[in-house]
């Protein structure tokens, strides 16, 4: 069997999440259809992290095992010929069984893009629009309270299947750009809706609906009912997945590995 590893990028607007569904309108189902056209079978796909409906991915990593051997160009250009414009295979490589897209990952980084404006901007559909002004300094101070190893039950969706709510966040930083902002969250792993629930709390503090200390109160409560409303999926992107360097996963997203030949 050959273990094929793919680097994916996709816009989540038109998909109902990553995970396969009976209706087939997911990233996984779309990729399976394209793979079947190339290798004549529907392999079992494992991904670095399942994304919800409307969530994007700049660097999603998947792997599957197949008895079929194809040149790497077939797994990139061939598969892309059968994919819609909203999802693309950026690169491919063969790796041995020790590699697993999910379990070999060291950390994951998400970015949540948003902007505050009296009216919606039609050219920022990949971001969350906030109608009210936001106090970014308060949001950054609240975000800093989450760094470290904590029980994140207050930011965990009811349907989360993770064995433990204890996760480690290495960095939570807010970056202000000329016409938008984003919060970058880097951690070892994430619970279901964890980033969106964190953003919901940050928005409450940024709008002065809750005091700054409320973030610590919510975190310590370990109770989802004490938190804020889940923020929109529109602004969330799986930005990067980190692996041990010996796997060379970063190469999957390097355009220099590809040529311009059909």
TrEMBL record:
It holds the Pfam family PseudoU_synth_1. Residues 10-103, 142-244 form the Pseudouridine synthase I TruA alpha/beta domain. One of its GO terms (molecular function) is tRNA pseudouridine(38-40) synthase activity. Its EC number is 5.4.99.12. It catalyses: uridine(38/39/40) in tRNA = pseudouridine(38/39/40) in tRNA. Substrate binds at residue 110. The active site is at residue 52. Keywords: Isomerase, tRNA processing. It is an enzyme of class 5 (isomerase). It comes from the Bacteria. Signal peptide: none annotated. Belongs to the tRNA pseudouridine synthase TruA family. Homodimer. Formation of pseudouridine at positions 38, 39 and 40 in the anticodon stem and loop of transfer RNAs. This is tRNA pseudouridine synthase A. It comes from Limnobacter humi.
